[in-house]
Amino acid sequence: MLVQSFLEDRNLVIKIEGDIDHHTSEEIREKIDRDYFREKAKNIVFELSSVSFMDSSGIGMLIGRYKNIEKQGGQVAICNVSENIERIFNMSGLQKIIKCYTTLDEALKEI
Amino acid sequence: MLVQSFLEDRNLVIKIEGDIDHHTSEEIREKIDRDYFREKAKNIVFELSSVSFMDSSGIGMLIGRYKNIEKQGGQVAICNVSENIERIFNMSGLQKIIKCYTTLDEALKEI
Amino acid sequence: MEFDNEMNIIMDSNSRNEAFARVSVMSFVSQLDPTMADITDIKTSVSEAVTNAIIHGYNNEKGKVYLKCGYKDNNVYIEIKDDGVGINNIKEAMEPLYTSKPEMERSGMGFTVMQTFMDSLEVISEEGNGTIVKMIKKISRS
Amino acid sequence: MEFDNEMNIIMDSNSRNEAFARVSVMSFVSQLDPTMADITDIKTSVSEAVTNAIIHGYNNEKGKVYLKCGYKDNNVYIEIKDDGVGINNIKEAMEPLYTSKPEMERSGMGFTVMQTFMDSLEVISEEGNGTIVKMIKKISRS
Ligand SMILES: Nc1ncnc2c1ncn2[C@@H]1O[C@H](COP(=O)(O)OP(=O)(O)O)[C@@H](O)[C@H]1O
Ligand SMILES: Nc1ncnc2c1ncn2[C@@H]1O[C@H](COP(=O)(O)OP(=O)(O)O)[C@@H](O)[C@H]1O
Q1: DSSP H or E stretch at residue C123
Q2: Which chain B positions have a beta carbon within 8 Å of D116's beta carbon?
Q3: Deepest of B54, C10, D16, D74, by most Cβ within 10 A of its Cβ?
Q4: Measuring CA to CA, how many Å separate A7 from each of A38, A47, A74?
Q5: What is the ipTM of this complex?
Q6: What is the pTM of this model?
Q7: How many A from CA of D56 to the centre of ligand 2?
């Protein structure tokens, strides 16, 4: 699992590669929370095209970021959901809480 | 595991994809022996670029074909040994028994 | 039950083994040549149950997680067992969004995932006596 | 021995499980981030020992193959056990090119592979009392 982040205006783009499960979620969470404050970001955009697997721990991690960032007055968006995680994505109802976009450009424009 | 074969003059080219272990060796052997007689081939060239794994059962299968084809007055050659199986290839000393070539063209020319 | 093929794994209660459990089950079940969708469903459900054993059953402490997997024709049987704290109220635990560890950012969706992705789910547990999760999936050949 | 992480697999003596055993061990050992060369060495050695249990130990008949894998620091310990026919003359069995099943196109190189690819190999066996193969590999992190 690999997490990369970069700032685009005040949007922190998080690109996750590999599996998101309970084990890797902890690492992902720590890296995101650290980068968010260090970069003085406002919003977070998750780029998920390279995620090979995700279970409900990933749902919890995404909702956790959403709650934190909302408290800071920011927004969270998701884009490029990989085929591998479409099934859990659809069943989780995450889209009702967090906005999903097809491309990163679209997400950055709309957020 | 997938075995494909085609005839080039009287050389039967055998392309193996996937793992060569004891389980798959039996299938590979049966297919080769069937095709060799059906196609009235003389020689066999193994194209091994897509082999993901091989253990000593694979060595046994290759030597087994070598022995059979020799009895028929034919030759066996190997080409395009994939990186995945270089280690077992080198330790097995197979090159002392069966000729190895870098490319299929070379193997077909020299055989 | 007499399976066509069967395997048992005993692993440490270590979150690194969540991936190990998924890959092992995937490799075993791939003998049936299932569709990608079925593989993903099974992998995800195994991940949920093994994670639960580690974080809820053993509270992230030492223990052993038992995984059994067998198939007969096109039916895959999976059993995940721990000797951990057990579940007091199974009905409540299985409700969507219920979690006893919201501070750990659990979504409370684990059992819902298993129920949705597998064809049958049975949870056997008692406070102080560990938990057994039994799942069955009828797979389609790819 | 107290490992950093440990797993045990019990599987049917079924040649399909040769690949399952390899993939499971590979997934488990990958927690140490080993080089590709080390992974290949371990996968190949596991494949040899599991194959031997199935075709020699159990003569391709029903039985259980036991695989134990643990690591401590950079050392990987693997044990493969069967309750099959056992080995009468271990020294002879371990000689390169020796095989009791030439008619099955065995190369007689299985033990030689394990000896070459692993850092230590121990074979414990007795006629009629099954076989245990113990291997250790010190891995380099990639
Ligand atoms: N193996 C287990 N041992 C003890 N309690 C468990 C176990 N599995 C699940 N539970 C309980 O059931 C609840 C719901 O589980 P689940 O639906 O997977 O959601 P989550 O893991 O996100 O909490 C858990 O919060 C926990 O209280
Ligand atoms: N698990 C086992 N049970 C019984 N006999 C075994 C076992 N493993 C190895 N042997 C014996 O040792 C011989 C050499 O094994 P090996 O070097 O792996 O070569 P091969 O498998 O090609 O015969 C076998 O032919 C067999 O007689």
Answers
A1: strand C120-125
A2: 91
A3: B54
A4: 11, 13, 14
A5: 0.96
A6: 0.96
A7: 6
Chain B touches chain D, with at least 3 Cβ pairs below 8 Å, answer: yes
Dihedral angle, C-alpha C25, C27, C28, C32, nearest 10 °: 120
Tokens for C72?
A: 């007969």
Q: To which residue do tokens 């402490």 refer?
A: C61
Is there contact between A and B if contact means ≥3 C-beta pairs under 8 Å?
A: no
Round to whole Å and give the CA distance between C125 and D24.
Answer: 28
Q: Token pair of A57, please?
A: 């721990």
Is the Cβ–Cβ distance between A34 and A46 less than 8 Å? no
Going residue by residue through chain B, which has 111 residues, state the pLDDT in tens, using 9 for 90 and above.
999 999 999 999 999 999 999 999 999 999 999 999 999 999 999 999 999 999 999 999 999 999 999 999 999 999 999 999 999 999 999 999 999 999 999 999 998
Residues with CB under 6 A from ligand 2: B 56; D 48, 52-53, 56-57, 82, 84-87, 93, 98-101, 106-111, 131
Distance between CA A13 and CA A32 in Å, rounded? 10
Tell me if D47 and B21 make a contact (CB, 8 A cut-off). yes
Q: Where are the domains of chain B?
A: 2-110
CATH domain B2-110 topology: Transcription Regulator spoIIAA (3.30.750)
**Which is the CATH superfamily of the domain at D5-138?**
Histidine kinase-like ATPase, C-terminal domain (3.30.565.10)
Domain boundaries, chain D: 5-138
Distance CA C42, CA D14 (A): 22
Nearest to C51 by CA among A29, A22, D24: A22
DSSP, residue by residue, D75-126 = EEEEEEEE-SS--S-HHHHHSTT--S-GGGT--S-HHHHHHHHSSEEEEEE-
